[in-house]
Design a protein that fits this description.
Structural class: alpha+beta
Keywords: FAD, Flavoprotein, Nucleotide-binding
Protein name: FAD-dependent oxidoreductase
CATH superfamily of the domain at 7-50 and 159-230 and 318-363: FAD/NAD(P)-binding domain
Bound molecules: flavin-adenine dinucleotide
Shape: globular
Low-confidence stretches: none
InterPro entries: FAD/NAD-bd_sf, Flavin-dep_Halogenase_NPB, Flavin_halogenase, Trp_halogen
CATH class of the domain at 7-50 and 159-230 and 318-363: Alpha Beta
CATH topology of the domain at 7-50 and 159-230 and 318-363: FAD/NAD(P)-binding domain
GO molecular function, one term: monooxygenase activity
Largest sheet: 7 strands, mixed
Strand content: 15-25%
Number of helices: 15
Distance between the termini: 47 Å
Organism: Aurantiacibacter rhizosphaerae
Strand order of the largest sheet: 5-4-14-15-16-13-17
Helix content: 25-40%
Length: about 500
């Protein structure tokens, strides 16, 4: 190692994961850190991944990105939630909207009051008590506080390729060295098994102290070289294919992602400034690739802009994400279908866990174990949340949906469903990504009934409960009505007029 260089990080792969990692390291690693990224234009990237969750703000603002510039560069739009269309049964839809539902009331979360009102027969659908859903359904968007002082948490839809390109410019400006080339061999130290270098086709060697595997589904380092192994979750989430195609804009410019249930899976719809991203996620046992292509093309709002592109995957995760001096981030770490837009978030959370440790080479075993335990916890709880959408369907008589309704559940999910059913209580462990409010919306939306609620909710006189729900509803309508339309707001924001 040269005297002035304190640590050499080598990032293998330049998709969203690679460039997010490079950007974060270039921003936060101490002076003297050498960061190299190798990618191959000939191999390319997975080219999908356009919907996010609100946590992305933390990442972008940690980098100091200007939001309007970011939206302009990535042709992005705003996102207030995800609509699940037909997941309980055909013709019904609900939303997992970001942010709170109802109003906080004393000791109890809102769900208990809503469950009580439901038993009394006057609870309205959750939409009426959610600022985000009300705004989303009426195609409105606003940043900052409403007249009543509330904020709408939001995320983005963006072109993932443009996001990676934007972060590449950022990282290169901060000193990241990008090397174009195909990794042909991963060199390891004989005794420890640690990775010592990546050897490119043509023989060039890139040496490093720590390696970040962002090679996508190939997982060249973490699995190819280090044999981390794979935990297959197809028994919980059996979809294994996607067919993706962008189309021309059309229909509503929704400030939300749509996930539309289909015969053997579901279709996403993600509106960007210049196009709509679409894709069908499906299970190959119940739908052929030809049928998937036809279904996808038959359900577009505008003319397709390319040939539909097939993607194969197996749901699950590497047994460990960190092994020796290598960390897998992105698709190399594993994959779960994007119905809740979680993959980019998992990239971000892996980066932030890593930055909290920032090893200068091989880390202590306890550090590696901690990291892997945290990742496993995060991934398993997200998996449970995804499985809930499937298991609670009422699409009887459709073979794929019958299968996913009857599949064995992870024990952690069974426990959550049982608690909810018995008492309306939602148990969320400290570091879980999805909040009680998120679970509440999916329980309610999928028709998973709670038989009871916390009796403390009975302390509120019935007339006060009615007034509470009614006032909440009226107040939300008043806050949403003056908001601009999503498209108008986006255009003026990106062009500078609506910036605060
Ligand atoms: P990739 O984009 O595949 O990048 C891999 C990189 O490694 C490329 O640069 C490639 O050139 C390089 N590489 C590979 N092999 C070599 C080699 N031998 N030599 C040199 N370089 C090499 N996420 C969300 O958050 N929201 C979504 O809505 C969403 N939708 C998705 C839909 C589908 C169908 C799929 C499959 C994924 C989706 N994701 C989504 C996940 C998201 O796309 C990924 O998490 C994200 O793009 C990161 O991908 P990546 O960088 O790990 O891999």
């Amino acid at each position: 190692m040269q005297d002035s260089v304190t640590a050499r990080y080598v990032i293998a792969g330049g998709g969203t994961a690679g460039w997010m990692s490079a950007a974060a390291l270039s921003r936060f690693a101490p002076p003297g850190t050498q960061i190299t990224l190798v990618e191959s234009e000939a191999i390319g990237t997975v080219g999908v991944g356009e919907a996010t969750i609100p946590q992305i703000h933390l990442f972008n603002s940690a980098l100091g990105l200007d939001e309007a510039e970011f939206l302009k560069e990535t042709r992005g739009s705003f996102k207030l939630g995800i609509e699940f269309d037909g997941w309980q049964r055909e013709g019904e839809s609900y939303m997992h909207a970001f942010g709170d539902i109802g109003r906080p009331l004393g000791l109890l979360p809102f769900q208990h009051y809503w469950l009580r009102a439901k038993q009394l027969g006057f609870a309205k659908p959750l939409q009426r008590y959610s600022l985000n859903e009300l705004a989303a359904r009426t195609m409105r968007m606003q940043r900052g506080k409403t007249a009543a002082g509330r904020e709408m948490p939001y995320a983005y839809h963006f072109d993932a390729g443009l996001y990676a390109a934007y972060l590449r410019r950022y990282a290169e400006a901060n000193g990241v060295n990008r090397i174009e080339g195909k990794i042909a061999n991963v060199k390891q130290n004989g005794e420890s098994g640690d990775i010592s270098a990546l050897e490119l086709e043509g023989g060039e060697k890139i040496e490093g102290d720590f390696f970040i595997d962002c090679t996508g589904f190939r997982a060249l380092l973490i699995d190819g070289a280090l044999g981390a192994g794979f935990e297959d979750w197809s028994n919980f989430l059996p979809c294994n294919r996607a067919m993706a195609v962008p189309c021309e804009g059309g229909g509503d410019f929704t400030p939300y992602t749509r996930a539309i249930a289909s015969k053997a899976g579901w279709q996403w719809r993600i509106p960007l400034q210049h196009r709509i991203g679409n894709g069908l996620v499906y299970c190959s046992d119940y739908c052929s690739d030809d049928e998937a292509r036809e279904t996808l093309l038959a359900n577009l709002d505008g003319a397709p802009q390319a040939e539909p592109r097939p993607i194969r995957f197996t749901t699950g995760k590497r047994r460990v994400h960190w092994k020796n001096n290598c960390l897998a981030i992105g698709l190399s770490a594993g994959f779960m279908e994007p119905m809740e837009s979680t993959s980019i978030h998992m990239i971000q959370s892996a980066i932030s866990r890593f930055m909290a440790l920032l090893p200068q080479g091989r880390a202590e075993p306890a550090t590696i174990d901690w990291f892997n335990a945290q990742s496993t916890f995060e991934w398993e709880r997200i998996r449970d949340f995804l499985v809930l959408h499937y298991t609670a369907n009422q699409r009887h008589g459709e073979p794929f949906w019958d299968l996913v309704r009857s599949m064995e559940l992870p024990a952690t999910l069974t426990a959550k469903i049982e608690q909810w059913r018995a008492s309306g209580f939602i148990h969320r462990e400290h570091e879980e990504l999805f909040t009680e409010v998120a679970w509440f919306q999916v329980f309610a939306g999928q028709g998973v009934e709670a038989d009871s609620y916390n009796p403390i909710a009975n302390a509120l006189p019935e007339a006060d409960l009615r007034a509470l729900l009614n006032d909440t509803e009226v107040a939300l309508v008043e806050q949403v009505q003056p908001m601009p339309r999503h498209l108008d707001f986006l255009q003026s924001y990106v062009n500078g007029a609506a910036r605060t």
